[in-house]
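A reminder from the course coordinator: this example appears on the midterm review sheet, so study it carefully.

Given structure:
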């Protein structure tokens, strides 16, 4: 893992590496977008037939295998799962559900002025599609993270798609009571969810992470169907002045093993700590080829001149996962998907079991949004109720504003209700 100092003789290399990390937002899309566009257009025009062709060609599914998985098969997969796996899933599901329940916004009302009550109602989306990756690794944890908040929100129709789903993924679907599960993936699954086919009705929103082609497809359909975010390859930043080198290195390698395109960064003002972390990363990544490749391509240790510079650089990178030393560090954090505090907060705990969602903004999107939450499955509807006293008080200034804009019909709609102005 390369160590780069932000000042001195090699500062130019550090600046170049930082610039490359900051520009990562579009690098994957440019490579995948043309392919994703062709697939989406094909599924829009060809429906089920095109979807089946891609499932056979890209996912290796037999021509005879039904794309929809029956509820009985899902329930049987849960029954066949090992007791240890079932216990772990139940523990994780409990924490994820409790966290999502705490996130639920409330309906409320208040009296703006005498005779005017305003407020909001909270309603779930009607349907969502949850994308569960099943490429290099099966990710049943992503099913928990996408489906459970939708259930807490009250979404009626929850559709799961996953290419060649592993037995563990099917088991979790059975545990969660999923009724609609399709063994499809990639851009073709996104196209089917966004536009519908003969056998798969479209959904209102697509959520969940995926590879470069899934991310590109979500971007392309985002005007046809709502999406959560463009979640690409995973990222980790650890910003520390007194952390444990072995623990820091272990978290960097753990996130890097997700994908050869994963980003792993350590930021510190202490050169000695940087060297110790570098040594530990090299040791731990030796027998982990995917992590080793990711760290070689997208890994860096930045040694800054000060704690202030370390903090500023962290916010510039807007990482998906961020580990810091202490609760007091939360005061300076502006951009991060999920924050882990202290030496015992191993990032993989957040991937599985602690409760906060692991579907998080990548590629710098943490500058503008947080991770997936129950709010992604809800809509807030505002409500306003005028009585005579309220319209008499607020009607005249509203008429003034309407006439200033030249909207005379607006003004008249207020006057006919007995308002002078």
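Designed residues:
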């Amino acid at each position: 893992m390369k160590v780069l100092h932000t000042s001195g003789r090699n500062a130019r290399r550090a600046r170049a590496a930082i610039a490359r990390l900051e520009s990562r937002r579009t690098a994957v899309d440019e490579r995948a977008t043309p392919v994703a566009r062709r697939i989406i257009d094909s599924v829009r025009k060809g429906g089920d037939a095109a979807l089946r062709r891609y499932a056979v060609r890209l996912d290796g599914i037999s021509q005879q295998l039904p794309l929809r998985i029956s509820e009985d098969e899902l329930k049987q997969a849960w029954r066949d799962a090992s007791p240890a796996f079932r216990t772990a899933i139940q523990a994780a599901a409990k924490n994820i559900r409790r966290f999502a329940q705490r996130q639920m916004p409330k309906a409320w009302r208040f009296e703006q002025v005498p005779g005017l009550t305003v407020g909001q109602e909270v309603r779930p989306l009607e349907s969502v599609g949850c994308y569960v990756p099943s490429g290099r690794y099966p990710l049943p944890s992503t099913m928990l993270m996408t489906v459970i908040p939708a259930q807490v929100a009250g979404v009626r129709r929850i559709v799961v798609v996953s290419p060649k789903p592993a037995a563990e993924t099917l088991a979790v679907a059975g545990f969660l009571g999923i009724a609609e599960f399709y063994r499809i993936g990639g851009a073709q699954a996104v196209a089917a969810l966004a536009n519908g086919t003969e056998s798969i009705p479209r959904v209102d929103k697509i959520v969940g992470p995926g590879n470069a082609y899934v991310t590109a497809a979500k971007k392309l359909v985002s005007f046809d169907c709502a999406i959560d975010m463009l979640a690409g390859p995973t990222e980790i930043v650890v910003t520390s002045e007194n952390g444990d080198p072995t623990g820091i290195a272990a978290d960097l390698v753990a996130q890097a093993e997700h994908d050869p395109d994963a980003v792993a960064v350590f930021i510190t003002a202490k050169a000695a700590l940087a060297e110790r972390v570098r040594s530990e990363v090299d040791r731990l990544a030796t027998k982990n080829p995917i992590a080793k490749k990711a760290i070689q391509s997208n890994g860096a240790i930045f040694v800054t001149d000060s704690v202030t510079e370390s903090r500023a650089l962290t916010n510039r990178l807007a990482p998906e996962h961020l580990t810091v030393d202490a609760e007091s560090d939360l005061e300076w954090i502006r951009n991060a998907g999920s924050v882990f505090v202290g030496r015992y907060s191993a990032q993989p705990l957040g991937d599985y079991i602690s409760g906060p969602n692991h579907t998080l903004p990548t590629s710098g999107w943490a500058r503008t949004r947080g991770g997936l939450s129950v709010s992604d499955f809800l809509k807030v509807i505002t409500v306003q109720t005028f009585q005579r006293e309220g319209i008499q008080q607020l009607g005249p200034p509203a008429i003034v504003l309407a006439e200033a804009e030249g909207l005379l019909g607006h003004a008249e709609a207020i006057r006919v209700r007995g308002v002078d102005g």
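The chain has three domains: 31-112+123-229, 233-367, 387-415. Residues 387-415 form one domain.
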